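Q: How would the structure tokens look for this protein?
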Amino acid sequence: MSEGELKEKIKKMYDEGKSIRQIASELGMTYSKVRRMLLEQNVKFRGRVAEEVVKEILERGKKVRVQTR
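A: Here is the predicted structure in token form.
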């Protein structure tokens, strides 16, 4: 498999929801190598917690504070 094909495979796996660690483990690569290949393809990283989840948690916190006052 060429480096270009490997980068595409890694990007596809990441886009399908696999973590960088999962990809590295499945392909027998290091975390940093997988991350570097994703960076080279200008992939926007998801982060540890999805933005929607953070917003939901903040909204729930506001509701709890209002109810307890």
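The helical segments are 3-15, 20-27, 31-40, 51-68.

The chain has four helices and no strands.

Upvote if useful.
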